[in-house]
Hints:
- The protein has helices at about 5-30, 65-70, 95-110, 185-190, 210-220, 225-305, and strands at about 30-35, 40-45, 75, 90, 115-120, 130-140, 140-145, 155-160, 165-170, 180-185.
- It is α+β, with helices and mostly antiparallel strands.
- It folds into two domains: about 30-205, no CATH class; about 245-300.
- The strands form two sheets. It has a seven-stranded antiparallel beta sheet with strand order 1-2-5-6-7-10-9. The protein has a three-stranded antiparallel beta sheet with strand order 4-3-8.
- Helix 2 crosses helix 3 (about 95-110).
- It is elongated and about 140 Å long.
- The protein starts with 6 loop residues before the first helix and ends in a 13-residue tail after the last helix.
Amino acid sequence: MHAPTSPRSAQCLGMLLSLSLLVAGCSMFSGESKVHKNAKGSVHLKEIADWSFEANHPAMIDQMTMLKVIKGVVTDSTSKMPASGSKPMRMFSDEDAEFLAPLLAQGLSQAKPEQIVGFKVSPSAGSGAEPTAGTLYIHKDSIYLTIAPSKDNGALGFVPTSSARLDKAPSFVAMGSAAMTLVIDHQALAKAPMPGSLPVAGAPKSMPASESQAAATMKTVPVQGAGAATQDFQANGSLDSESLALNNDELLNKKLDELRDARKANKLKDSEIATLKKEAAWMKKELRQRAEEVKALKASKASTRQAPKKKSAEAHRVR
């Protein structure tokens, strides 16, 4: 026969059962939720099971800043470097950046503190490169961007270098031990200009120099000085477009700064109003107590005046 179970052992058994059910419940609710998915790529929210992880989500990052984040990621893979080897190459094309920027901003605005934003984007048709995957989350005013290692991507970098640093990727992003994370100061990046044009890693190879020169000669109008005028026009047009883009960025950053200042002022006013309300309630309470004390004092004085005086006892002589 089995010995009867003591109350203490039964209590311990119940606690263990409750903990097992809690862990099972957590594993049941963990998973991924899609933000967007199509043939170009996907963006999803993923819950992190590590209890020590906590991001500053939901977070509002404007699409222009997110566009700078995507366009600023570069790689120095020697197999993808141009012939001169003097410049790094952008990891994402303009098409990739325009696809990812609004979706990643939307994902950060919907994410919970225990979630990160995952993404996957396919390269342009004909490039032959593999899809690029990564994760994104915000912690203490910095964007943590991790790119999954692949044979098409080399060492990571960022432009401008003053807005980011490179750290080893944390284990919970599940990108492998060789993965690296870019820690990007998005507030400083929002005030910086848009990264300039760089070659894109995995882009189709350009035409040989002889063929491109021949095509340009065929398209050029056979008028003396026309080629120089066309080059000057293209140079001036590109400068005008760049200056216009810089002016638009500066105006947008100025408006965002004004909006942040207005929000801070509103929060300060709300706290001042709450303090004034507390002080008014305290003053009302004090006034009520004093009024009750005065009323009680007046009542005690009135009762003293209305009480009849007792006659003093007189002694009579008895014969």
